[in-house]
Amino acid sequence: MTVTLHVCITCRAGETIPEGQPTPGARLRDAIVEAGVPSGVHLVPVECLSACSQGCSVALSAPGRWSYVYGRLSAVNAPDVVAGAAAYAAAPDGIVPWRTRPEIFRKQSLARIPPIPALPEAAE
Amino acid sequence: MTVTLHVCITCRAGETIPEGQPTPGARLRDAIVEAGVPSGVHLVPVECLSACSQGCSVALSAPGRWSYVYGRLSAVNAPDVVAGAAAYAAAPDGIVPWRTRPEIFRKQSLARIPPIPALPEAAE
Lengths: 124, 124
Prior knowledge:
Chain A is of the alpha+beta class.
């Protein structure tokens, strides 16, 4: 399944960024691109994942799957983000066995959200 | 639109819970039920939203909308959770004007995730 990897590119990670310099979030995005976005993963930059107190963050989501948000990341974590995203894409149900998740995914979870059910509309 | 309000009912909020006593998460769920689940909101208990260091948490989601996760909640916040969920359900696009969000939604966001795009599968 093709999954979406959202990366917050506006994250300043609590730093004061000189004008014209890339934010830590943008550097993380660039490092992920450099590490190589895996097949089946669609990289989408986003302005703010509302996890601003937790440093740079990314989210993994796909239709019918649990969504995951990870934080306290920086550009050095790009290879692990790529590996974790690839595993999420490859898992038939998006649930990657705990032990095979990158350490940053095991220890730096900010939240997960169950699959969004397609609910019937009220009759009214 | 009918939206889903997930409530983590296993949350212990860092407390030691005597056997047979409800967890803080279960108490939050019960308080939400008592406050009255609004029309258009589907309350779904969930075991762990992976935000365990942030006390009790809830998530709001619906097809085609941003998902939101809020934390550091307790049963006393139930009326505000209900009000915020009702506003999310009532907003045509799920985006509630900032000033009209309950304070806990403005100050206790753990994360938000953009709408999940339905991506075409790879041709292979």
